[in-house]
Amino acid sequence: MIIQLSDGRQLPVEMHKVRIVQKTSLPPAEHRLRAMAEAGYNTFLLRTRDVFLDMLTDSGTNAMSDNQQAAMMVSDDAYAGSESFYRLTAAVKDVWGFEYVLPVHQGRAAEHLLAKVFVKPGSVVPMNYHFTTTRAHIELAGGSILEIFTDEALNTQSSFPFKGNLDLDKFQRVVEEYGAERIAYVRMEATTNLLGGQPFSLSNLREVRRIASQHGILVVLDASLISENAYFIKQRENDYQSKSIQEIMREIMSLADIVYLSGRKSTNVRGGLIATNDRKIYSDLLAWLPVYEGFATYGGMSTKEIEAMAVGIREMVDINVAGSSAEFVKYFVERLHANGVPVVTPPGGLACHLDARRFIPHIPQINYPAGALAAAVYLASGVRPMERGTLSSDRDKDGNEVLADLELVRLAVPRRVYSLSQIEYAIDRITWLHRHCDLIGGLKFVEEPPVLRFFFGKLAPLGDWGSRLVAAYQRDFGMDC
User: Fold this and answer.
1) What is the C-alpha separation between 31 and 378, in angstroms, rounded?
2) Cα–Cα distance between 296 and 315 in angstroms, integer?
3) Catalytic: which of 209, 234, 264, 265?
4) pLDDT (0 to 100) of residue 15
5) Which one of the listed residues 24, 61, 132, 431 is annotated catalytic?
6) Annotated catalytic residue 156
7) Which of 320, 324, 397, 422 is surrounded by the fewest CB atoms within 10 Å?
């Protein structure tokens, strides 16, 4: 909820009480430098004991509600026919309107099953933007992705409200060029993770549905951040400002043939699912579920997670839940922007995103500026972000570097986890880092996996810039506190 203070400022207010706390600590700058070196300048490889605020991701790191915790205590642990599964399917039907549900252990498991069933060698999958694991599964199945985002999508200094829209003219041209028979499905992601958590509009999705229906093309929705996308539609799309989150979400779902999600995000649970109203689609996917996930009524999840997910689906339509992270992200972005720090605007869901190419323009893309900036943010604050740029792209089949469209550093804001004072700390340290951006240098690989290298790859700084940055930090902040 946003309240207006007596001095005119607007402030996001947490609509929950904190009843259980988890201790954290702020490691000194010298400790952070050692930890960063041991992690190969890859924030994924840091240990949590070395992290103050963990903003790597919101995946599996959101705070569950008391009702979700309570539901886990009454789960039915049966291998087959668990009543917990039927409570999940009831929630999916009531909230989203889907008859058939396949539980999976997380979002990438759903992507794997969809690619296994629908993607053939030579297939193409047009989409509003790829996600790393989405692309990997489609390409491993012999297909390829076609990113047909709008011109505004890559403009990081924009006020356009729906940069996650799919370009409809490009979609028409894809159908004409490839033929509907080669299009496995068209994928819409809510919200577009690698574009800075940017949403699509309902009017755009409706037109995607219209074109797809004309040509017999399936519409697949990645609904991992569906509640945030619905929240932005309510805020930014004129026809929906009087609608509830439930009404908006139900309309979004009605326009998709298949919906899948990582429950680690909008439902605040470690798990995932696929949902559809098409019996044949369900049957085709179900055949492979026991091979890769588990039986139809648990699908790789524990029944405790299934119970919590059922509650999470019902709770995600509460405006104070749907907007809890989005409003903190907005505050984060707007405060940094006011301080002159290059951020992606307008604020999206999921995270505050720093634009590394504007933050450190002296570092060429070949030296991984987003990766370098992610490491520098950690050194200057103890906050762990994630690189979303060229490091998150794998090399092509000839071993050449594939430069990313954007070089972003993601500072995820997990739901109901951090306080506004902790966000203020991150803002202060990132602002300081921007004033000393000339101290940051590039990176080079020393250990590079062939696929999804950003998870386990190790890098080294080009020069001794990490030490120089920490020395400047200690000069200005001493022992931090």
Assistant:
1) 11
2) 24
3) 265
4) 84
5) 132
6) no
7) 397
Q: What is the CA radius of gyration of the chain?
A: 22
Distances in Å between the Cα of 223 and the Cα atoms of 64, 178, 216 are: 19, 26, 22
The correct CATH number of 66-318 out of 3.30.420.10, 3.40.190.10, 3.40.640.10, 3.60.150.10 is 3.40.640.10
Q: Catalytic site residue 131?
A: yes
Helices and strands in the chain, H and E counts? 19, 16
**In angstroms, rounded to a whole number, what is the distance separating the alpha carbons of residues 285 and 113?**
7
Looking at residue 272, what DSSP letter applies? Answer: E
Q: For the chain, which residues make up each domain, given as ranges?
A: 2-58+321-477, 66-318
Residue 481: what pLDDT? 58
Which residue is catalytic, options 50, 54, 167, 222? 222
Nearest to 107 by CA among 261, 296, 276: 261
Answer yes or no: are the C-beta atoms of 124 and 174 closer than 8 Å.
yes
Query: Residues 49, 77, 79, 464: which is the catalytic one?
Result: 79
Q: In which residue are the tokens 């405790």 written? A: 304
Catalytic residue at 396?
A: no
Do residues 302 and 262 touch, judged by C-beta distance below 8 A? no
Is there a catalytic annotation at residue 477?
Answer: no
Residue 87 exposure: Cα atoms within 13 Å on the Cβ side: 20
Catalytic residue among 171, 260, 282, 454: 454
Nearest one of 355, 456, 357, 445 to 401, comparing CA atoms: 445
CATH topology of domain 2-58+321-477: Aspartate Aminotransferase, domain 1 (3.90.1150)
Place of tokens 């300081």: 432
Of 52, 131, 185, 231, catalytic: 131
Rounded CA-CA distance 378/447 in Å is 21
Note whether 132 and 452 are within 8 A (CB).
yes
Place of tokens 């009702």: 67
Residues 6+ apart with CB under 8 A from 185: 114, 118, 125, 217, 218, 219, 220, 257, 258
Q: Is 32 a catalytic residue?
A: no
If DSSP codes are grouped into helix, strand and coil, which group holds residue 205? Answer: helix
| Separation CA 276–CA 254 (nearest Å) | 10
Per-residue pLDDT at 58: 86
Q: Which residues of the chain have a pLDDT value below 50? A: none
Residue given tokens 């020069």 in the structure block: 463
Task: Identify the DSSP state of 149.
Answer: B
Same fold, 2-58+321-477 and 66-318: no
User: Among this protein's residues, is 394 annotated catalytic?
Assistant: no
Please say if 298 is a catalytic residue: no
From 330, 388, 415, 416, active-site residue:
388
